[in-house]
Amino acid sequence: MKRDLNRGKRALQRAKEFSFAARRPYASGMHFDVHVQSATTCNAPPPSHLSGAVFFGAACVETQRHTAAVAPTGKWHVAATLSALVGGSDARYPAGTPAIVELDFPEDELMAKLKLPRAEWWPLAETLRTQRQFLNIRLPTGSRVAAGVARLASEFAAARFLIDPFRHGPTSAWQAQARLAERENVWLSTLGLRDAALWPRAEDVADAFYFMMGEVGASKVLYASGRTLPECSDAESWLSAVPCVDAAQRALILTLNAQELFG
Q1: CA within 13 Å, CB half, 104
Q2: How far is Cα 211 from Cα 208, in angstroms, rounded to an integer?
Q3: For each of the chain's 263 residues, which pLDDT tens digit applies?
Q4: How many angstroms separate the CA atoms of 139 and 128, rounded?
Q5: Pairing relation of β-strands 134-137 and 31-37?
Q6: Rounded Cα distance, 27 and 175, in Å
Q7: Among 151, 54, 163, which residue's Cα sits nearest to residue 103?
Q8: In terms of Cα–Cα distance, which of 139, 111, 135, 105 is closest to 123?
Q9: Nearest one of 27, 38, 127 to 78, comparing CA atoms
């Protein structure tokens, strides 16, 4: 019975994805990267196949400004790190309006904070909701953190969460973290999957996509390279080599989901 329900759920999800992809314009070969590293200012123009990006790192603001000036038709955003459980009225909250707020705590501290009552998280969640920002929680390896994040996402259904389940490699119990995107307000990034040092085997990368397509669907996955701007190579060629991802799903992962979420 459960298998039949899961099969029906996947079929419905696939139909929705195909319908959504068919309604949105998609320029083949273009992609949006939700995690581009910018430790130092990059003055080079963005690659021609890059339609937008979210810049992370110490020089993300400077790189975003330069990129927006030389490629004004693209969608260029920044991420900011937060190391305190606070909202927008606190001076420690990132200034401006970063598209992604990256919450970074040591593992033990994060596990403790995930057990705090709802009121402790409310200032942060309410700021995320009103400013339409994503919360990217830097998760440790393994599955034990997943239950706490699932509870948090359920309690703050109006806040949006972005999870990087692949950043620790294929032996890190990433499946539990990927299943978090079964919730309406949680999305996954592919961060880590293009790192050959972390994911050296093409079959492991294919297995990760097969799992995502079956469990949460392409509409909940965003492309993230983790590379610097000059290193942002053609993502479509890379994803086209994954046999379980078809053209409509590639369009969603590489561009359409990001257009919907980041503008």
Answers
A1: 10
A2: 5
A3: 444 445 445 545 554 554 555 455 556 679 999 999 999 999 889 999 999 999 999 999 999 999 999 999 999 999 999 999 999 999 999 999 999 999 999 999 999 999 999 999 999 999 999 999 999 999 999 899 999 999 999 999 999 999 999 999 998 889 999 999 999 999 999 999 999 999 999 999 999 999 999 999 999 999 999 999 999 988 999 999 999 999 999 999 999 999 999 98
A4: 18
A5: unpaired
A6: 31
A7: 163
A8: 135
A9: 38
